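protien #1 (seq + structre)
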Amino acid sequence: MIHQNLENWNKLNFTNKMADIGSEAIRVMSWGDSKNGEDSLSRFLQLLDLTLKNEKSPTRKNELETLKDYFTEAVKKKNLQSQQQVRNFFIDFALLARKSS
């Protein structure tokens, strides 16, 4: 699936992008191995890749790549503790995004 409006995605600030990516990560955890879970994982990866593609900071880029690898491995191995750590990481972005809107 290709993001519906790439131009709008690129206009979002980093916090809002991470909040949206986090929503997909939480959906993956909620839906598990179902078709919906697979679709959410696909969207998670797509949005993260779009963010990585336009990221200028090498440090941030490295951290996003690490997040991508960590989360996909946690989902693959069904590591609930690691998935919970990712959920906690993204909650901060959701709260910040909500506060700034």
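ok now protien #2
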Amino acid sequence: MDRIDAAFARKRVFEAAFLAMLAGPAIAQRAERPDVNVGDQWDFVLYYGTPAARPNRSWIITSVSSTAVEDTENGEQLLLTPDLNVQNSPRSRESNPNALRFPLEVAKRWQYTSDWVFKPLNSNGRLDVDVTVVRHERVIVPAGAYCAFKLESEWPPLGPGC
């Protein structure tokens, strides 16, 4: 092997080691379902269209069991699955919500089908969803900087002609 080939081979080994070093922490990341306790309160922002920064939703945990997490949302009944998916809220209802499935790990994938109702418009439908945990990353939001998993969900277009 001449000098150029040897240098190229060392460069490739270094690149592979460097990439493995970068990939190692991401691959090793795993998140179990967070502990949820009666009395926990989560305040957050939910908006459609015009961004808002002031919390307009408040969830307060009222009961935790192996089959459900019962809460209130701004004083109205809210029901979450054990994996913290919204099953029934003042705005919507789903038959099989599975947008989250703990533990979360990079490259984890799952599929689910769920019938949904959007209460304000009395509209309904069915979703066939593919979910992938894409990566573990640092995100910055008005509440601060956090390490988080990025999940991507894909489903066919809704309605005729889409």
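The mean pLDDT is 83.
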